[in-house]
Amino acid sequence: MKEQLTITPARLGLVDGTSNPFPGLRPFKMEESHLFFGREGQSDEVLLKLSQNRFVAVIGPQRKRQVLLHLLWCASHFVRWLPHWHRGQLGSGGGSSGCQPHRHLADALLSQDGAYLVSDPEQRRIKRTIVSSLLRSSSLGLVEAITQYRRGTDKNFLILVDQFEELFRFKTSIFENKDSLNETLAFVNLLNNAVDYEGTPVHVAITMRSDFIGECAQFPELTSKINDSHYLIPQMTREQQRMAVSGPVAVGGAQVSPRLIQQLLNDLGDKTDQLPILQHALMRTWHYWERYREQPEEAIDIRHYEAIGTMSEASRFTPMRLMTSSMSSSALSARCSSGLSPKKEEITMAYAAPPRLDVIAQIANVPQEEVVEVIEKFREPGRSLLTPAYGVPLTGESIIDISHESLMRIWVRLKHWVDDEAKSVQQYLKLAEAAELYQIGKAGLWRPPDLLVALSWKEQHKPTLVWGQRHHPAFERTIDFLEYSKSEYDTEQRMKELQQKKALKRARTFALAMSGAAIICLGFVMWAIFEKTRAEAASILAEEQKHLADEKSIEAQKNAEEAKLQSDNAKKSMLEALENAKEAERQKEQATLAQALAEEKRLEAERASKDAENQRKIAEQRQVEAEAATQIAVENQKKATEAKERADQLRYLSLGKAMAIKSQQINEKGLRALLAQQAYDFNKDYQGYEYDHDIYDGLYYAL
């Protein structure tokens, strides 16, 4: 059943009225399955598992839209194909695989009903409601719906569920009600029972990212089916990658140079998640080659590939060109991107549920029409940067997401938007935490610089209620806290200004009063200076007269001092003579006293000599007594030692006799001999009576 690559005229048809065989970032369509190269042989394995088990789970390491088309290629050989619900567009299906799955499954079922397609909108709504209610009515709702549709026909049904992991992404979304987990369980049960029901030929195929496989453990029956029938998408070999490049080119009726293929494979390397980027680069290379080729039969070569910027620049150039051509919508694009791409620790792991279009409009605070206008520019044919795919009508409930995670690595401006959004969310959460703490009395109002930073953030980002509640539910409290902080701060500033004005007024009044006082003081100073000048003149005259009187007084005083000096000298001479006589008398008395003291010292020395001799004799007597006491102590110690040795001797001799007597009372021969021998050793070692009868009795009875 393995399909060989043969290029025939029937395979040269291209869809959408274009000659470009590369879809770019968007997924392949059903009618483009002939352009999907590189995984042809793998379809047999998937189809075999599907036919044997009526169920197959195709698992890949990342979101590969090509996986879905791979299954569609298998389905084209099957009995019947039913459009599925998924984020992109496939046939008539559109929407999101995780958002309201029952409704989208109902739409997919009804899209096969010709009468439904030609009916008016009101009848469609009624019929959609009936089918959706039937699906929700029981776990066999899908079986009943297909049974009703299958009346009169023997066709089989293949239900393809792409990106099954979105059931888990959306179950915690704020747009889902509290029963979202139950709805997920009900939908899984629909699929399980449809596969297990023998009366209805329903086959189910799902695609899912491998990093979500653990989420399936919540559903035992689904886990069992996945274990029994799953297919893990292998990494494409280099030859398969070569076919993915050369095959569509051949279908398009062109040729590609071998060196370009080699360059593309080298640029791709082992980065399999870059395959959509490769498709986008080849799409732009094809456009450039069609426009600028020099000859009709010219092969696509490296110069065409390098002209579009190679893989590293091709996808980056497209969004940059969009922003350059529409700078007026740049700010709106930034606001829209905040809901599409929440910043993660690893940017490729975008697990958060993407928002609906009406939510994006509410976040950006603009009409939905303006958001649709921006989104349309990013999902036009040849771009496909956003999903749903081009052609799917956009409504307020449409889920908007980026077409491939790799865009988040190469779109520089998107990175900046995401970083800016992350900082904005961080500021909002910080403000929300402060508001919560203030409400419970554990923190105060904000003051600069935090308040000024928060006000600048609010003015720049203009947060809306919907945006705020996506990150913290207490948006009104948070904004009220910020406004109240600003109001209180403004009130404080006004009070400070009033206080400053009052202080300035008081200062001015005080300055005027001080100025008047200064003028009065200046008048007093001038009057004081005048009076001082007059007083100084009178003082100078009085000083001169005083000086003359002082000179005469000094002269008279000198004469009196000379007379007094002569009288003092005479008195001094008489006093010195009397003092000398007294000194001679004192010296005589001191000599007599010194002689008496010397005699007394001599007598004391003689008494001290006699005392020393007596003490020496006493010390010699005590030494003799100490030596005698020492001799007596040595003899007493010797006697004590001999007494202890004699006591030990008697104790061991007594112990030996006791052991000898005890040995005679023991029946165990070995122990009896051991005791008798030990008793004999004690008697011998401690010099007992050599012929002690108890010792010899013990030895005798021990033999």
Taking pLDDT < 50 over at least 5 consecutive residues as the criterion, the unreliable ranges are 1-17, 75-96, 173-177, 323-329, 344-351
What fold name goes in the CATH topology slot of the domain at 39-235? Answer: Rossmann fold
| Distance, first to last CA | 106 Å
Report the mean per-residue pLDDT as an integer: 77
What do these coordinates show?
α10 crosses α11. Among the domains are: 39-235, Rossmann fold; 326-471, no CATH class. It has 24 helices and 6 strands. 65% of the residues lie in helices and 4% in strands. The two termini are 106 Å apart. The protein has helices at 42-53, 65-75, 101-110, 114-118, 121-137, 141-149, 166-169, 180-196, 220-228, 238-251, 258-268, 275-292, 302-307, 310-325, 330-340, 357-364, 368-378, 407-410, 412-439, 450-461, 465-471, 475-663, 669-685, 693-702, and strands spanning 55-60, 157-161, 202-209, 230-232, 386-387, 401-402. The protein is flat, with a radius of gyration of 59 Å. Strands 2-3-1-4 form a 4-stranded parallel β-sheet, sandwiched between helices. Mean pLDDT is 77; it is low at 1-17, 75-96, 173-177, 323-329 and 344-351. By secondary structure, it is mainly alpha-helical.
Topology readout:
Elements: H1 42-53, E1 55-60, H2 65-75, H3 101-110, H4 114-118, H5 121-137, H6 141-149, E2 157-161, H7 166-169, H8 180-196, E3 202-209, H9 220-228, E4 230-232, H10 238-251, H11 258-268, H12 275-292, H13 302-307, H14 310-325, H15 330-340, H16 357-364, H17 368-378, E5 386-387, E6 401-402, H18 407-410, H19 412-439, H20 450-461, H21 465-471, H22 475-663, H23 669-685, H24 693-702
